[in-house]
Amino acid sequence: MSSCGPKVKMDPGLHRGQKPPWIKVRLPNNPEFWSTKSLITDLKLVTVCEEAQCPNRWECWSQKTATFMIAGEKCTRACGFCAVKTAKPDALEADEPQRVAEATRRMGLRHVVVTAVARDDLRDGGAEHFKRTIEAVRETNPGIIIEVLVPDFNDRDWALQRVMDARPHIFNHNIETVERLTPLVRSRAQYQRSLTVLKKAKAMVNGKVATKSGIMLGLGERKDEVLQAMDDLRAHDVTVLTLGQYLRPTPKHLPVVEFIHPDAFAEYKGIALEKGFRHVASGPLVRSSYHAAEFRPELDVLEAIEADLRAMKGIELGPEHLPLPAIKPQLEKAIA
Ligand code: SF4
Question: Ligand 1, atom 2: nearest CA belongs to which residue?
């Protein structure tokens, strides 16, 4: 809840106000940006791109990608880094899953990221709404890769299971920062709990999901702590990692203690790959969903998910339902 903010405050005097030259925000320069914007407005959808004031929104929207934020734009938590409003949330909108699905269809997306505010006011933390959204997207846009970026559902296994029952391809839950800084940076969430949520999500579907997490750098963490966080994530079966620079959304938010040089991001990427992460996005402007479609889960994971869905529904899905590139007609002819 909003009253449960960080107990210890970070010294605001630590803030580095002057942005270095590598933090550059590109302004919209093509019609795609405006068409994405009007589609989102038409369907009355909320995006984390806008709510979190993401610095990449000009670029992502120009490339017709966006991260949909379901369950409203008011969050029950008050994390020190996040620009999303903290307030009593509104009731869930029953038709929102279908509107998100429709947006993915109209945008022609082959990979969608769906996230939500933390809904601690709901018993299931919004898990059923995630499930309905995944199902609606899959039904409307067969073959799309579905990535969810979820809150911790207060570690309620039955709620997590509800999301996993809908079989997302990628399960993303951010640890956000190193263990020592977690009580300063995150509201209610706990470092160890986030790690176990990641591990449990994978175990619930017998490993047939890619798990992903992200860390913001520049909040005063030390290098050894970042490396430890990488080890912790690997020990909890996480294979996809994002590392980005924390930027302060307003003066009321946590200070930027350090601007991490792009060379250091590149070094972290190399280390993370050596530690066994399968895909690492690391750079000053990297966010959880930045260029998300560049990562594709392993083929055996994709096939296993589709096979399980077929079995669950008791229906035969055609090859068009598999998240694989369709065989070109000429190739089909050649094979025949
Ligand atoms: S990085 Fe993610 S949140 Fe930011 S604009 Fe792109 S899709 Fe939206």
Answer: 289
pTM of the model: 0.88
Query: Which residues contact residue 108 at a Cβ distance below 8 angstroms, ignoring those fewer than 6 apart?
Result: 64
The residues lining ligand 1, judged by C-beta closer than 6 Å to any ligand atom, are 48-49, 54, 56-57, 60, 65-67, 287, 289-290
Ligand 1 centre and the CA of 99: distance in Å? Answer: 19
- For 328, other C-beta atoms within 10 Å of its C-beta total 9
Which ligand 1 atom is nearest residue 47's CA? 8
Alpha-carbon span 35 to 33, nearest angstrom? 6
Q: Mutation test of ligand 1: which of 68, 289, 294 has the most ligand atoms closer than 8 Å to its C-beta?
A: 289
Closest by CA position to 305, among listed 266, 92, 313: 313
Print pLDDT tens along the chain (336 aa).
333 444 557 777 778 878 898 897 777 668 888 899 999 999 999 999 988 888 888 888 888 788 999 998 898 988 888 888 889 989 999 999 999 999 999 998 989 999 998 898 999 999 999 999 999 999 999 989 999 999 999 999 999 999 999 999 999 999 999 999 999 999 888 999 999 999 999 999 999 999 999 999 999 999 999 999 999 999 999 999 999 999 999 898 999 999 999 999 999 999 999 999 999 999 999 999 999 988 989 888 998 998 888 888 775 655 555 555 544 555 455 544
Question: For a substitution probing ligand 1, which of 290, 291, 294 has the most ligand atoms within 8 Å of its CB?
Answer: 290
Residues in a beta bridge with 241: 213, 280
